């Protein structure tokens, strides 16, 4: 570290960052896919947050902290798992996926046997299905459905417009529904 | 029939609807479409089932042992006492109430239950005076519960009692003696009910009634949670609410 944090900065760090450590660790684990790696990421992210603490504008501590964790996790992934980050978001694929969403809505049957099946999904299968999502979908779904952020906060953390948050979330959920709505056996 | 563009739109908006992210006008529009379109209703059921599975089945990630200590050490921040327990919270509630009310009040009306009740009523009144009495605006318990999950250590049992005449309209976080606690908001006719849930040491007790500043207050214990229901409803209606909530919350 180039400079030593002042007492005031440390106090602010305690107040702003440490309350969200569990959220930080959860996001890091879903991004890296590994508990030990997640610990390293969270520790690095916390030190970055301490250095940057004076830049916190005081509006949303959790979103600010998670943004730093996400940056740190991406840096870690680039270094260690560059393959995981190769997600081609070509516009045609997006259109196809959206069309699929639309088709589901248009053609779904009124009784929804998949809904009952999905609601009964075992933890391990659910965890695997989420872990298999491409990273932009996975992080959006985790921030929303696991960590309970609202769309605006997710847009802030992931650095994309709200419209993109909405389409990523819809596609993440559609993929999970497609995977979990069919019988495992 | 919808055009393809509208279909795409609906496919996105149904998620925003379920996440409590739509403004009231679009909510009404979506509810109209849901009523008219069984396929859309089926899609809603699938999304709700997925969110239910994520909230109920996925194990909550816990902070690994020692990580906090390592970070505090690396960041050079002194280690202080761990998060306050709920017993400490209860003590803080009492202390805050005693300090806020002064010794005279304390001598006249002793008892922690009274102290908490005053604070709960104050939160209810403050919420009624705010532009909207709820932070998360949704009648869907699968939206309300995860909203709490991200914000407070322990999210409350969330049940919808619309079929009993008490529809859930949302939730908010109250601050009781410096500690955030979950409050669910229900409606009965034109009246709002705030239901505050504070984890306690355990045990069960029958509802206890009181009237504070013209508001009826009912409190009871269930499965390690003390509930406080506050409303300007008549006491009979509030009793009916408690009778509807208690069995429903135990089934969860």
Question: What does this entry look like structurally?
Answer:
Chain A has 2 domains: 7-84, RNA polymerase sigma factor, region 2, helix turn helix motif (Rna Polymerase Sigma Factor, Chain: A), CATH 1.10.1740; 87-180, Orthogonal Bundle (Arc Repressor Mutant, subunit A). With 185 residues, chain A is mainly α. Chain A has helices at 7-16, 21-32, 35-51, 61-80, 91-107, 113-119, 123-131, 135-146, 151-158, 162-180. The model of chain A is unreliable at 101-110 (pLDDT under 50). Chain A has 10 helices and no strands. The longest helix of chain A is centred in the middle third of the chain and has 20 residues, at 61-80. By secondary structure, chain B is of the alpha+beta class. Chain B has 2 domains: 1-80, no CATH class; 86-251, 2-Layer Sandwich (Phosphorylase Kinase, domain 1). Chain B is built from 8 helices and 7 strands, in the order H-H-H-H-H-H-E-H-E-E-E-E-E-E-H. Chain B has a 7-stranded antiparallel sheet with strand order 1-2-3-4-7-6-5, with helices on both faces. In chain B, strand 6 and strand 7 (225-231) form a beta hairpin. The longest helix of chain B is centred in the middle third of the chain and has 23 residues, at 86-108. Chain B is globular, with a radius of gyration of 21 Å. Chain B starts with a helix and ends with a helix.
